[in-house]
Amino acid sequence: MTDFERISIANARQLIAAQDATIADIRDPQSFALGHMPGAFHLTDANLHQFVLEKDTKKPLIVVCYHGISSQGAARYLIEQGFSEVYSLDGGFTAWQQHQPDQVARG
Q1: pTM of the prediction?
Q2: Does domain 6-52+80-102 have CATH number 3.40.250.10?
Q3: 92 closest CA partner among 21, 37, 29
Q4: I want to staple 60 with a disulfide (CB 3.0 to 4.6 A). Which of 4, 6, 69, 85 is the partner?
Q5: Among positive and negative, which fits the CA dihedral 73, 106, 39, 104?
Q6: Are 32 and 49 in contact, with CB atoms under 8 Å apart?
Q7: Can 65 be counted among the known catalytic residues?
């Protein structure tokens, strides 16, 4: 994969279940604390370098923002950092929370 792909919520759920994808949530700390996808890593400028060094670059990576716009730029950047299979979640966490209310972690 030389560029990221956009992924629907249904396809993201399948990918997470089948391949244990990494989820990187790039929203602000308060929004992340109020709710995020289960198992999501809160990716910030402060921990980006550590994330790139420690995460498996061969594992599927789903980038999540508020509405699926900002995650596209972040996904493109993470491809440039060596991640081989990167997705931007269409509709972002807003759509995830609307369609998967039972799949929201808090704290």
Answers
A1: 0.95
A2: yes
A3: 37
A4: 85
A5: negative
A6: no
A7: yes
